[in-house]
Each structure stands twice: as C-alpha cells, then as structure tokens.
C-alpha cells in the first residue's frame, strides 16, 4: 500500500485560511434557502387552507335538503289515531297516502308505522 499520495489540491491554502468571507456568504445562502423554503411552505399551506375552506363552503351550499323550505306542522297524536288517518287528513289531495306516510316516517325518523297517544309528529305541509 502506498504511503504517499500524489494528490494536490487545486486550491491554495492561503485562500482557504483567509476564506472567512466565503463562510459568511455560505451562511447567507443557507439562510436564504431556509427562508425561501419557509415562504414556499407557508404559501402552499395557505393555498391548501383556502381551497379546503372554499370547497367546504361549496358543499354546504349544495347540501341543503329540498325539504328545507317546506313548512312543517306539529300534530299531537290522540288516543286511537293511526298514521294512515293522520296522513289522509294532512296530505295533498293529489298525493298517494302511502307516499305521504313514507315522508312522515322519514321526517320523524320512525322505523315502523306504530304511533302512540301523546307522540308529536312533524308533518310537512304541501300546497
């Protein structure tokens, strides 16, 4: 194995020792790179937040139910009342009673057609 090498640096040692100024410029470059990356990261994050908020707002605008503008009437169930009788009394004339019962069940979160005296039903009123 060789003990001596023939490698010689292309830089002279005086320039390296006196190169404190180059160290400062390197430090400045690193600082600029960090600031640039922070700015870029901040801009990307801000853009992502704006897009997220914008999309959320759009979803909320279009998420409205078509039943939001339909007036609701509250009816207290009396003894002996059935969902069919209530539907016949409050449904529009041209609507099928079974369809109105489905709407009543959906509006009141009922799984069955069973109702009891004292229950309060929300009935959509169609004109």
Automatic annotation (TrEMBL):
<feature type="transmembrane region" description="Helical">
    <location>
        <begin position="40"/>
        <end position="63"/>
    </location>
</feature>
<dbReference type="InterPro" id="IPR018392">
    <property type="entry name" value="LysM"/>
</dbReference>
<dbReference type="InterPro" id="IPR036779">
    <property type="entry name" value="LysM_dom_sf"/>
</dbReference>
<keyword id="KW-0812">Transmembrane</keyword>
<feature type="domain" description="LysM">
    <location>
        <begin position="74"/>
        <end position="124"/>
    </location>
</feature>
<keyword id="KW-1133">Transmembrane helix</keyword>
<dbReference type="Pfam" id="PF01476">
    <property type="entry name" value="LysM"/>
</dbReference>
<protein>
    <submittedName>
        <fullName>LysM peptidoglycan-binding domain-containing protein</fullName>
    </submittedName>
</protein>
<keyword id="KW-0472">Membrane</keyword>
